[in-house]
């Protein structure tokens, strides 16, 4: 079963997404494990900073394709409600009152990249393969993509990445402001841990207050998530999503019909 490991180094807690067989694909089960670990960390007043990483050679390959296929059989209301709950599992990291540093080694695709962008700071593998590839699957973006990507990269770059779904590298992400730094793969976790330790060494009341002052606009994020869940429920009923999923499975370009 997918799991999320909790590691401690002094006042720094590290959460590690672990479903290595599927490159940490985002399933409800992995989301449940993350939300449970987040609750555990939130109850521990000795934690002053958190690192979020992925096990193996990937941060996250994105949404579980089998899950997306199952949702095609759901009603509009069922799909919309499911997606709102799905987002909440993973974006529970935004509810922590201490800073979270994403350590992105290897690919971070679609919703997986969104979870990294929801963190306070991002350290990325310079050669990581990254994408907001929802449109190339025939699926409206979710997991806060339409709020988080413009917040990081600016509206025009975010629009380009979301509309094309193209791949880009960790170096690109750092150049566009989507990540703080791009470093060699073997330095990602150590650099994220170093930053977290520096944060944890500062006055905790001030750091927690700064987290609020610098943090997400929760009303704007909630509005984006509500809109995304609606549009994703529409996408699940489309022929284009079926074609996108088949093309992904067959490793070919999709031929969308607009239906």
UniProtKB/TrEMBL annotation:
It comes from the Bacteria. Keywords: Isomerase. The lineage of its organism: Bacteria, Pseudomonadati, Myxococcota, Polyangia, Polyangiales. One of its GO terms (molecular function) is isomerase activity. This is Enoyl-CoA hydratase/isomerase family protein. Belongs to the enoyl-CoA hydratase/isomerase family. It comes from Polyangium spumosum. PROSITE patterns: ENOYL_COA_HYDRATASE. InterPro entries: ClpP/crotonase-like_dom_sf, Enoyl-CoA_hyd/isom_CS, Enoyl-CoA_hydra/iso, Enoyl-CoA_hydra_C. Pfam families: ECH_1.
């Amino acid at each position: 079963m997918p799991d999320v490991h909790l590691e401690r180094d002094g006042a720094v807690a590290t959460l590690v997404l672990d479903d290595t067989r599927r490159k940490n694909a985002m399933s409800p089960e992995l989301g449940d494990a993350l939300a449970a670990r987040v609750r555990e960390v939130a109850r521990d007043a000795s934690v002053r900073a958190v690192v979020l990483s992925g096990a193996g050679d990937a941060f996250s390959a994105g949404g579980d394709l089998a899950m997306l296929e199952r949702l095609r059989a759901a009603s509009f209301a069922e799909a919309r409600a499911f997606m709102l709950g799905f987002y909440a599992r993973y974006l529970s990291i935004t509810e922590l009152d201490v800073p979270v540093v994403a350590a992105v080694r290897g690919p971070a695709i679609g919703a997986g990249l969104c979870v990294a962008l929801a963190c306070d700071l991002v350290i990325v593998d310079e050669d990581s393969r990254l994408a907001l590839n929802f449109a190339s699957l025939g699926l409206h973006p979710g997991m806060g993509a339409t709020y988080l990507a413009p917040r990081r990269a600016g509206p025009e770059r975010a629009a380009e990445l979301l509309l094309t779904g193209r791949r880009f590298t960790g170096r690109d992400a750092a150049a566009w402001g989507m990540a703080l730094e791009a470093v060699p793969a073997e330095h990602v976790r150590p650099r994220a841990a170093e930053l977290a330790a520096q944060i944890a060494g500062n006055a905790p009341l001030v750091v927690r207050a700064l987290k609020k002052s610098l943090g997400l606009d929760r009303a704007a994020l909630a509005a984006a998530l509500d809109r995304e869940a609606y549009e994703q429920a529409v996408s699940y009923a489309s022929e284009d999503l079926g074609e996108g999923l088949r093309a992904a499975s067959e490793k070919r370009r999709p031929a969308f019909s607009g239906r």
